[in-house]
Amino acid sequence: MIGNGVAFRTRSWIVLCLGFLTVSSPAALAADCPGHPGALGTSRTLVVDPHEHPRIGTMQYRETLPLKDHEVVLTFDDGPLPKNSNQVLQILADECIKATFFIIGEQAKANPEGVRKLVAAGHTVGTHSMTHPLTFNKMPLDKAEAQINGGIEWTSAAMTDPSKLAPFFRIPGLMRAEGVENLLISRGIQVWSADFPADDWRHISSDRVYQLAIQRLEAKGKGILLLHDIQARTVAALPKIIRDLKARGYRIVHVVPATADQPATPTTAVEWLLHPPTETTPIARWPSVPNFVFTQTATLAAPGLADLNTQTAHQPQVLPRKTMAQADVAATLPAPGRDLFAIPEGSVEVLLSTTLSRRAANRLAMATEAPHAGKGKGKGKAARMQVPRTAHAAHPTPKRAAQAKSTAPRPTRVATGVKKRA
Ligand SMILES: [Zn+2]
């Protein structure tokens, strides 16, 4: 299974390249499925490490497989049951689709050949307990363990090579329990829920199974589909589901467990969420702001005395630009009082921050500064506005004040930013 996965991934990579060249991935995938020109195929193999992501499936857990939009993982539970399971196998083979099967120990014991067929076809095989009791949520842990062990023992016993058994387990009926999950996780077994079922265990028509599968997939855009290969209605619905997946541009992903020879596919933590927060979600970006500010501050060179072009005798201490960082950190705190950023009406800063052109604003600034140059009152006003950033330049000359205005962020922009983040 693992070896096939590697080979398949290599072929998929080649197919992907061809897809870019021809802008026709269906044709490329058909080439990957000899004798079946219209096949949906399997677009890629995803290698997962159960230790890193022990619970998956948004029906019950926070995380799910790191799928891209329009990627689907097919899973089949409760087999093998020769009559229906063999038909499911044939349908998947005709489409060159690789899926994941969760085997019941008793079924493996009764139909070991069915397990071997799955392995030979390159599917991933996990387990689903020994007798499928729907009481995992309340049974004693030792009984749950016996159920888990029975499924593993009989499924691996049916295999020619027991190492082909994946450390994947789906709790019967999804009757989850913390103790059972912890037991599985402690043994390096990944707990699989799903992202959506198609209710194919209920007494509904195959058309309804098909509709539910597609509707629920469309609602989430990607994910793990839970089906049952032992159900005749699933056998009937599967070709239509696959046809529709192809028509709607979905791609099949094959999932295999990581091994010493095959490391997990590199992913980021956020990819394991079905719908990661977008760039426009403020709360997702919120915690990163203070770190970002301090990182930037650490890389900024502290200004030297020469930069100030002034006499050091009047400077008690030249501070680095740490106050900028402090000002920005403050912006991540609860919104300050409205008057904190109040600007006196008619001040130069108001003019600079309005829609006047910069040239016009500079002219006004120079004209306004000239009469106050020797009094200090106007300078004091400008200095108040610049306090967080230019506290070290307590006595700026008119020239330096103009420079500061052209380079320093505009005061009202800071206020606007704070309002947006609040
Ligand atoms: Zn089941």
Can you tell me about this structure?
The chain has 422 residues and is of the alpha/beta class. The protein folds into two domains: 2-276, TIM Barrel (Alpha-Beta Barrel); 283-421, no CATH class. Helices cover 47% and strands 11% of the residues. The chain contains 19 helices and ten strands. It has helices at residues 2-22, 25-31, 82-94, 105-110, 112-120, 141-158, 178-186, 206-220, 232-247, 282-285, 288-299, 305-308, 322-330, 348-352, 358-372, 377-385, 387-390, 398-407, 411-421, and strands at 44-48, 55-56, 71-77, 100-103, 124-127, 165-169, 190-192, 196-197, 223-228, 251-257. Strands 1, 2, 3, 4, 5, 6, 7, 8, 9 and 10 form a ten-stranded parallel β-sheet that branches. β8 (196-197), α8 (206-220) and β9 (223-228) form a beta-alpha-beta unit. α3 runs parallel beside α9, α5 (112-120) crosses α6 and α6 packs across α7 (178-186). The two termini are 53 Å apart. The model is unreliable at 1-28, 287-300, 310-357 and 368-422 (pLDDT under 50). Residues 77-78, 128, 132, 172 line the site of zinc ion (ZN).
